[in-house]
Each structure stands twice: as structure tokens, then as C-alpha cells.
Amino acid sequence: MINRRVFSAIIMAGAIMVTAPGMAMAGEDKDAVAVQMTAAQIEDLLAGNTVMGTWSGSTYTQYYGEGDFTVYIPEGGEPDEGKWRTNAETDEYESWWRSTGWTPYTIVMTNDGYAFVNGGDLEQFDVFEGKQVEY
């Protein structure tokens, strides 16, 4: 029989870890584990850094400036300036664009690095130190 402390620890770990069947990208392990990042972790990861990844199959680069400034540059497209922030109550990343207003996203750590949760998909990305974009 599991004692109450061990049971509580298992429940807490389960609340932190999200098993993500159906959320893996093509070719990835469908039983991959994704752990939601906190707002503080997201800020530490993104602030002053550049992200390169894919979103719905399209490659992009995005710089997260200090404060709330961000610039999104789709491969072969024009840069778009927006805003970003984190929500400490929900542990979500939030982005603002003229076309959409504020939109929240969960960011997770996976077996392969980092990913945005986009509906039922994980949109993998890599983080590079500093400003790695020209626009």
C-alpha cells in the first residue's frame, strides 16, 4: 500500500508532467513526455534571445527583446513587430500581433528541447543567445 506522502508526490509529479500522445510532431515518439514551463522559466528562456523553429510547417525566426518587444520573421517573408509577455497565474506565454491581439500559448520542455503547444501539435524550436536577426 502506498503511504499518503508517496501518493501525494506521485499526484504532484503527474500535475507537472503532461503525457502528450497525439501532440508529437511527425516522426517523434507518440508517447513523449512534455513538461509545462513556468512563466519565470519562459521569461528566462526568451528575454533577449532568438528562437528558430517551425509553425504549422513554416520556418521562422523570432527575436524576443527586453521588455515586451518581439519581431517575427517568416522564411522568405517580411518581418512583423509585436509584443510578448508571460502570465504568472496561468504559466503561459502570450503574444500580441495587430492581426490577432493577445493570444496565450503553453510552452513545454520535451525530450527534444522546447515547443509551443499549438492546438494538438507541438511546434519545436531552438533558442539562440542574443539577437540573431537583421531587419
Task: Describe the protein's topology.
Layout: H1 4-16, E1 17-19, E2 33-36, H2 39-46, E3 49-55, E4 58-64, E5 69-74, E6 80-87, E7 92-97, E8 101-105, E9 107-110, E10 113-118, E11 121-128
Antiparallel strand pairs: 1-2, 2-9, 3-4, 3-11, 4-5, 5-6, 6-7, 7-8, 9-10, 10-11
Plain-language structure description:
- The radius of gyration is 16 Å and the shape is globular.
- It is built from two helices and eleven strands, in the order αββαβββββββββ.
- Strands 1-2-9-10-11-3-4-5-6-7-8 form an eleven-stranded antiparallel β-sheet.
- The chain has a single domain, classed as Lipocalin, CATH 2.40.128.
- With 135 residues, the protein is of the alpha+beta class.
Main beta sheet: 11 strands, antiparallel
Helical amount: 10-25%
CATH-defined fold name: Lipocalin
Mean pLDDT: 83
Q: At the first level of CATH, what is the class?
A: Mainly Beta
Q: What's the gist of this structure?
A:
The chain is an alpha+beta fold and 135 residues long.
Question: What structural keywords apply?
Answer:
single chain; 135 residues; alpha+beta; Lipocalin; eleven-stranded antiparallel beta sheet; disordered N terminus
